[in-house]
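Weekly structure sync, notes
Attendees: PL (lead), two postdocs, one rotation student
Agenda item 3: pending single-chain targets
PL asked that the sequence for the first pending target be pasted directly into the notes so everyone works from the same version. It is reproduced below exactly as submitted, 124 residues in total.
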Amino acid sequence: QVRLVESGGGLVQTGGSLRLSCTASGLTFGASAMGWFRQAPGKEREEVSCITSSSGLAYYASSVNGRFTISRDNAKNTLYLQLSSLKPEDTAIYYCAAANAVPYCSRPMVVNYWGQGTQVTVSS
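Predicted structure, written out during the meeting:
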């Protein structure tokens, strides 16, 4: 059974930082592209970032490029998202996503598994 468990969300002021983590089990983590998506109230879920299985390539939405950094530790089956210079419009539920056994980030990312999400709230 595949499980993706996010942590690290919370309430932060504008300009602040957070680090999200996603611990995976039950999938071939080291051979899978991983990503982060977010969904704000009343909006569709959108891709934030994707990283290839070997960390060779990372992709970012234009709205977060330069402020967010995706990374992974294959030895720990863990995906990270460092959020910096946060803005109120970054407020959303952030979801971890996996493309099981697919090493590259397809455009758009094809997701096989989702985490349950973690809330990020940025106050103005």
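Discussion points:
- Residues 30 and 93 are 25 Å apart (CA to CA).
- The chain has a mean pLDDT of 97.
Action: rotation student to compare against the earlier draft before next sync.
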